[in-house]
């Protein structure tokens, strides 16, 4: 677990922007791989803190969901970090299963090729 002298509470999180949704970067705590980008509202963050599993707000289904509730690919959360503006989160997970709905370990598996890059 990450230890910091600058701990914050749920009450410090700024839910006033983006209609109450915060972007959540999900990162594997061991490999440091970025696994996905999702969104959380206050209830999703509360559930994540309470259960220690990754919860999100689905912008496509317009509902609260726990990652893995259908696929079984639950993502145990070791730490939740809040950014310096208090409006974005990082979930550090102990990922043992794929996180992407395609079955890939990470949602970031497409390389954009451009001759100018």
Q: Give the overall pLDDT as a whole number.
A: 91
Number of helices: 1
**Major β-sheet annotation:** 4 strands, mixed
Query: From the alpha-carbon coordinates, what is the Rg to the nearest angstrom?
Result: 15 Å
Report on this model:
With 117 residues, the protein is mostly beta strands. The protein has one domain (11-93): Ubiquitin-like (UB roll), CATH 3.10.20. Helices cover 9% and strands 28% of the residues. The protein contains one helix and six strands, in the order ββαββββ. It has one helix spanning 42-51; strands at residues 22-28, 34-40, 55-58, 63-66, 77-82, 89-93. The chain has a four-stranded mixed β-sheet with strand order 2-1-6-5, with helices on one face. A hairpin with a 6-residue loop joins strand 5 and strand 6. The relative contact order is 0.22.
Report a brief summary of the structure.
The chain is mainly β. The chain has 1 helix and 6 strands, in the order E-E-H-E-E-E-E.
